[in-house]
Every structure is written in structure tokens, then in C-alpha cells.
Amino acid sequence: MMNALAAPRVTPELIEVLSAHAKASEAARQLAPESVQAMRDAGLLRALVPKSYGGLELEFRDAARLIRDCMAGCSAAGWVLMVSAGHDWMVGSYPHAIQDEVWAAGPDQVTPGSLAPGGTLVPTDGGWKMTGRWSFNSGAAHGTWFILGAVDQSGDKPRLLHTLVPRADLELDDNWRVLGLCGTGSVDATATDLFVPEHRTIDSRALFGGRSEWAERHPSNIYKIPIFSGLSSILASAMLGIAENGLEAAKALIVGQKDRYTGRPKADRPGLHMRLAQAKAELQCAEHLLNDNFDLLDVMADGGATIPLRAQAKFQATYSAELSRRDVDRLISATGSRSAFDDSPLQKAFRDLTMASKHETINFDSACQAYGRTLLGLDLGGFPV
Asked: Hey, which residues does 120 pair with through a beta bridge?
């Protein structure tokens, strides 16, 4: 067990363990237990857990670096870490009673969930009755508590709440058969007339806006950062790590290979030189956008989370993610038919990035429109930031 005050690192030994179990995770459609335990032993699962519960409560740029570095060993492991860390950060804004419940077992847990409103809530004595189906619960097989969005329709207007539900209260549907990120085990969770105590819920307006009264007990200002600003930044960092894998895989496909017709080394092709140069430059641009984003998050943590700044942060993270996706899309087109085989790391990076880019947090159209509207002095037009 790692000391709570020690700074975690993604060591070569950890990368070796994650890499050794990556194919097993892919085949099983869920993260290998050995990979989860390796990240737990390294202290990574406590990256964004509050310090008051034995966590590290890292700055976002530091947590994002850990997530990105994990991708070198296994993209599924890095993705589950990203999702769990983001949810751990969110738990720090919930009522104190449920924070105590969640972290009673320690800070080294996996916290899956689905923020989309997949359920409905009906008021009852002491809380709610909840029914629903929630998709994309990454790391579900290893989860302890799940964050799940649900709508209360008992008032004049529908109200979105986010609940915390123990794994034992949910049914998991083994339906994760997808194009990419196969090893994340992001299955559906279901519940019918499940009792959810009032203290296990939070109004999503307070949660998403970084305005929770219950976060005041924590020493860090990261709880003042709006949810989409933080989550989009670590998600884009995960995608950058996958794209970096793709670039290395593309180089490996080129070096030492010869053209079948001319017999000349593929590494002598001017077109490939251009594609690699473009790819490297795009990844550098993606990284610079993220670095600027982490500076924006610092401003938000100090109380500067204006709507235009939130729109800018979400857009920059989304554009960084889009650059990563385009990067590997270009590389797989340039490197020939060998990159299409199932055993090709470049093909895997392509599949994983294609899947990751579907995440609603980095929806390209809505992020662009929201930011563009603020640049013209308009309101958000209903787009979430």
C-alpha cells in the first residue's frame, strides 16, 4: 500500500505490467484484475481522491500526466483511470455523509458511472425511488460506487440529480461489444425502484458549476472548477496518450520495411516524411492546447470560472482531442495495408481514438458552437459548458 503523501509515478515496471495484460483485457472486454491492482499499488487510483480521505487531491495537470503516461502500457487501463479519477473528484462535492460512506473502504477504489440522465427519480420518504439504465460505465466490474444521472420530474420543471449507488444495488449487463476501448468493460448498469437516500444525491447545477457547499472541507480549490472544464481536459489527455502510441506504431511500420514493387526502403518516401512531420506537429499542438487549458483551470480554481472561460476550456480540450483523432486517422491511411491487421498497434490506436471521440463531453460540434457564440458576445444557446 502506497503512503498517502507519496507522489505516484508511472514507472517502467508499471508499464510492463499493464502491457503484459493489455491483450487479455481486450479479449475479455474488461480490464484485467492484475492491471487494476498494479495501478492501485502504484497509488494512481487515489490521484483525485480528497486528501481528507487519504487521497492525493492532485492538480489536474498532474493527474492528466499520470493518465497520459499509462496509455503507453494499456489504453484501457489509462481510460478506466481517467474515468475513475474524474468521478473521485466529483465525489468530493457530494454531501459529507456519502463522502464518508464512499471512502470508508479507503482511497484506492475504482469509481465508474454515467453522467447522462439514464434514470428517473420518484420522491419517497427519506430519499428517492430510482429506475433506469445507464451506459458506458467504464471499469464497472471493478467498481465500488457508481455515479449515475437521473431526472426528478415531480416539480414544475424536470431536475437533474446525480446519485451515488453501491455496486451491490445494481445489475450489470454484459453488453460491451464495441469498436474500440474494448478492454474498458464499459457495460450498462440497471436498477428498478431502487431506494436512494437523500444524502446520496446532489443537484447537478451545483455539481457541474463547481458551487457545492460540501466541497469546502477540502483544502484544494480544484472543487471550484466546473465539471465539463475538468473532465474534458483529462479526457483529451487520455486521447493524446493514445495518439502518441499511434505515432510510435506508425514509425515502427515504416522503419526497416521495403516497397514491394521498387524494393526501396519505405523510410525514403517523401510522402511518409510529410505525414510524420504533420502528425508530430499536430500532437505538439494538442499538447500546447492542453497545457493552456490547465492554466485556465487554475484561473477557475481561483474563482474565475466565467461562462466565456468555461466555453474556451471545453473547446480547447475538444479541439485537442480532435487533433489526436485526426492524427492517427492520417497515419493509418499513410502506412499501408499492414496497419489494418488486428495485431497492429496503429490499428488499435485508430479504433480506440474513434471510440473515445464519441464521448459527449468532447462533442466537437457543440463545443465549437458554444465557444463561437461567446466570441460574438452571445449566450451559449443551450450548449453545456
From this structure: 131, 151
Q: Report residue 124's pLDDT band, with 50, 70 and 90 as the boundaries.
A: very high
Per residue in 8-34, pLDDT (tens digit) is 899 999 999 999 999 999 999 999 999
DSSP classification of residue 171: E
Task: Scan for cell 509515478, then name that residue.
Answer: 9
Residues in Cβ contact with 215 at an 8 Å cutoff, skipping those fewer than 6 apart = 92, 93, 223, 224
Residues near 20 by Cβ (< 8 Å), separated by ≥ 6?
A: 34
Same domain, 136 and 175: yes
Same domain (yes/no): 329, 275: yes
Q: Which residues contact 348 (CB under 8 A, 6 or more apart)?
A: 26, 75, 180
In the chain, % helix, strand, coil (3-state, to 5) comes to: 55, 15, 25
pLDDT band at 242 (very low <50, low <70, confident <90, very high): very high
One domain for residues 198 and 247: no
Full domain range(s) for residue 60: 12-105
| pLDDT tens-place string over residues 76-112 | 999 999 999 999 999 999 999 999 999 999 999 999 9
Q: How far apart are CA 286 and CA 163, in angstroms?
A: 34
Reply yes or no on whether the pLDDT at 260 is more than 80.
no
Single out the residue in 75, 105, 135 at which a domain terminates: 105
The angle subtended at Cα 363 by Cα 71 and Cα 86, nearest 5°, is 50
Could you give the count of Cα atoms lying within 13 Å of 355 in the half-sphere of its Cβ? 23
The count of other CB atoms within 10 Å of the CB of residue 245 is 23
Query: How many Cα atoms are found within 13 Å in the side-chain-facing hemisphere of 284?
Result: 6
Shared domain for 153 and 287, answered yes or no, is no
**371 within some domain:** yes
What is residue 69's predicted lDDT score, i.e. its pLDDT? 98
User: How many Å apart are CA 212 and CA 204, to the nearest integer?
Assistant: 10
Same domain, 143 and 259: no
For residues 311 and 374, is the Cβ–Cβ distance under 8 A? yes
